[in-house]
């Protein structure tokens, strides 16, 4: 069975919308709970928490535990690489940020269409291979949101890769855009270890529509809604790590329990998850996982991830609750220096950043139509 990993992408923060205001005290408690439960795999990246994610890992793990007691995975930020001369300085900076002499796992961050400037112009694969030979990396791999055909091309051309980090969950399993199942099959065909990201699809699978929850509870009233998502990924073949992206201690503790109790799904239960997926798909308006890759690209400073989250929740609720998220949008719109949906200039800079291939400016038009109306209390 797979191991559980602590994905440090969405750590708790002290000030709303300030992703650099990491709640280090709480992260320390999360790390302690994770280690006490017998797990030791941490996953971070150069770009997490607006560039201070690796330092947060150092402060909460490296400065508090002996090096041999944990494993660290981080990622080369392909988003910013345009020439080879950047590689050595960035890699050196990452070792310094993390406070380590070597990385256990190191990957090219999101090899896909929107990072092609980096991987087409710069020989990234030779670089990570060289770093491995020099002893700075134990295992090399990639993370990707590309489709199965794209993944197959990479794995065919680069037999030196040892693992792949893929978005896998029961909702994306047969999704035509994400192709979780097909990507997993390709990775297995090339004998690669698979790491799983987004097992809860950015929280979607923790908060499913009522009708879907009812199906799950009728089948087994003792099992939580999220436990189904964990059971699905934890029992797939050739999965070495499942990353939980917990954003507070309570979530992490729940994830640990869900992982420890993740017994395999029966055929009936797998069929039930197909029905659940159908219900969820008919309720999801925007397939956003809140990764926030798009937010930095937006010249209008629109917090796209936050707006889509409010919009999804609003659409999922019945009419009785509509004011809740309309109000939240109104509050957001009154913050200083933020853009609202109708500020979108359709420059399209964000589109190529989105691993979920969402046509962001088009969706923002719908959001503006819903939220920026007097009916929702919007008067700007
Ligand atoms: S298309 Fe709109 S949301 Fe996207 S980056 Fe441009 S202004 Fe921002
Ligand atoms: S719109 Fe796309 S890039 Fe932006 S937060 Fe959502 S999934 Fe991530």
Question: What is the CATH top level name of the largest domain?
Answer: Alpha Beta
Oligomer: single chain
Sheet having the most strands = 8 strands, parallel, barrel
CATH homologous superfamily caption of the largest domain: NADP-dependent oxidoreductase domain
Mean pLDDT: 92
Spatial extent as radius of gyration: 21 Å
Query: How far is it from the N-terminal to the C-terminal residue, by CA?
Result: 54 Å
Count of distinct structural domains: 2
Tell me the helix content: 40-55%
Computed structural class: alpha/beta
Bound molecules: iron/sulfur cluster
CATH architecture name of the largest domain: Alpha-Beta Barrel
**Molecular shape:** globular
Stretches where pLDDT is under 50 for at least 5 consecutive residues are: none
Q: Count of DSSP E strands? A: 8
β-strand percent reads 5-15%
Q: What do we call the CATH topology of the largest domain? A: TIM Barrel
Can you write the helix and strand succession as a string? EHEHHEHEHHEHEHEHHEHHHHH
Strand order in space, largest sheet: 1-2-3-4-5-6-7-8
Q: Helix segment count?
A: 15
What is the element layout, followed by pairings?
Blueprint: E1 3-7, H1 24-36, E2 41-43, H2 48-51, H3 53-62, E3 71-76, H4 87-98, E4 103-108, H5 116-121, H6 124-133, E5 137-144, H7 148-157, E6 163-167, H8 180-189, E7 193-197, H9 210-219, H10 225-234, E8 239-244, H11 249-260, H12 267-283, H13 304-316, H14 322-333, H15 360-371
Parallel strand pairs: 1-2, 1-8, 2-3, 3-4, 4-5, 5-6, 6-7, 7-8
Helix pairs in contact: 1-3, 1-11, 3-4, 7-8, 9-12, 13-14, 13-15
Bound molecules: iron/sulfur cluster (2 copies).
């Amino acid at each position: 069975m797979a191991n559980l990993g602590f994905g440090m992408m969405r750590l708790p923060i002290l000030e709303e919308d300030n992703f650099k205001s990491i709640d280090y005290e709480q992260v320390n408690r999360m790390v302690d709970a994770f280690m006490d439960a017998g797990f030791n795999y941490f996953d971070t990246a150069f770009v997490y928490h607006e560039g201070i994610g690796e330092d947060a890992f150092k402060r909460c793990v490296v400065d508090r535990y002996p090096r041999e007691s944990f494993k660290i995975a981080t990622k080369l930020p392909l988003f910013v690489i345009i020439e080879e001369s950047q590689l050595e300085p960035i890699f050196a900076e990452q070792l310094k940020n993390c406070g380590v002499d070597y990385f256990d796992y190191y990957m090219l961050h999101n090899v896909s269409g929107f990072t092609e400037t980096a991987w087409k112009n710069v020989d990234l694969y030779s670089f990570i291979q060289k770093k491995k030979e020099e002893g700075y990396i134990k295992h090399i791999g990639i993370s990707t949101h590309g489709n199965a055909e794209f993944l197959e091309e990479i794995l065919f051309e680069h037999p030196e890769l040892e693992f792949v980090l893929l978005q896998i969950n029961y909702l994306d399993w047969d999704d035509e855009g994400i192709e979780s199942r097909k990507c997993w099959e390709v990775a297995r065909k090339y004998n690669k270890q698979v790491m799983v990201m987004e097992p809860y699809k950015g929280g979607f699978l923790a908060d499913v529509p009522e009708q879907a929850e009812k199906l799950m509870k009728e089948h087994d009233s003792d099992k939580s809604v999220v436990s189904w998502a964990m059971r699905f990924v934890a029992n797939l073949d050739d999965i070495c790590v499942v990353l939980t992206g917990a954003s507070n201690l309570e979530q992490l503790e729940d994830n640990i329990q869900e992982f420890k109790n993740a017994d395999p799904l029966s055929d009936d239960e797998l069929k039930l998850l197909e029905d659940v997926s159908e219900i969820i798909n008919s309720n999801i308006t925007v397939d956003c996982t809140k990764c926030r890759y798009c937010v930095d690209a937006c010249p209008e400073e629109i917090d796209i991830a936050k707006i889509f989250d409010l919009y999804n929740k609003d659409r999922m609720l019945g009419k009785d609750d509509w004011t809740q998220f309309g109000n939240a949008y109104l509050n957001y719109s009154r913050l200083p220096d933020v853009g609202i949906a109708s500020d979108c200039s359709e420059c399209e800079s964000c589109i190529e950043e989105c691993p979920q291939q969402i046509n962001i400016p088009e969706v923002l038009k719908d959001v503006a139509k819903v939220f920026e109306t007097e009916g929702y209390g919007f008067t700007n």
